[in-house]
Amino acid sequence: MSTQPEPARTGRPARRDPRKRILPARPLAAAALAAMFVALLYAVELVDVILPAQLDLAGIQARSLDGLDGVAWAPLLHAGWGHLFANTVPVLVFAFLAMAGGIGQWVAVTAIIWLVGGLGVWLVAPPDVVTVGASGLAFGWLAFLLVRGVFNRSAGQLAVAAVLLSLWGGMLWGVLPGNPGVSWQGHLFGALGGILAAWIVARADRAKARRAPGTLGA
């Protein structure tokens, strides 16, 4: 069993649980980081067009050792400006909101989505195509935002998730086969990476709470 002493009455309002934060604590820094990531995507596409460098060939080619390093590069590459334009707003919005737990946490969450999404594509995508694009990251961040509200039991986060679904709910159809030219594998495994990241963050938060002063366990 565990006991927790009654907090001293200091007259100060109770601090809000940081796990239930909806917006980043440093919104300007978060917005700048999201904008810089998108600027990087545009810079890479511009280089690909100007040279031309055929950078898209560095994407993920399933079950090929030569295509495995595409896991590292695929989210930075796009199959033309239209592809990049379609991903821009979701990437900006979801990346920004996913920084509510801090930029360090966002980096870890993004790394999990990047790796799980990329490896999933490498394992199950058709062998005769090269997969590129940041939509897997967007799906991962969206899934993370949806699931964190459940783990945190936060009405505010769940309300934001509902708004995101109403605005970009059509994206969810991309996790199923059927749309030629769209990597449902990237979307599906990106979303699974986001769910995994939300679960890992929730476990880390619970472990941190158990280690907090004022709680005794027996």
Q: Could you provide a short overview of the structure?
A:
It is found in: Membrane. The chain has 218 residues and is mostly helical.
Low confidence ranges: none
Find the count of extended strands (DSSP E, 2+ residues): 2
Give the overall shape: globular
In the CATH scheme, what's the topology name? Rhomboid-like fold
Q: What is the spatial order of strands in the main beta sheet?
A: 1-2
Report Rg: 20 Å
Beginning-to-end CA distance, first to last residue = 5 Å
CATH superfamily: Rhomboid-like
Helix count from the secondary structure assignment: 8
Domain count, please report it: 1
SSE run: EHHHHHHHHE
**Main CATH class:** Mainly Alpha
Helix content class: 55-70%
Structural class: mainly alpha
- Percent in strands: under 5%
- Biggest sheet statistics: 2 strands, antiparallel
Overall average pLDDT: 86
Q: Could you say what the CATH architecture is?
A: Up-down Bundle
Transmembrane segments: 25-44, 81-99, 106-125, 131-151, 158-176, 182-202
Pfam families: Rhomboid
Family: Belongs to the peptidase S54 family.
Main location: membrane
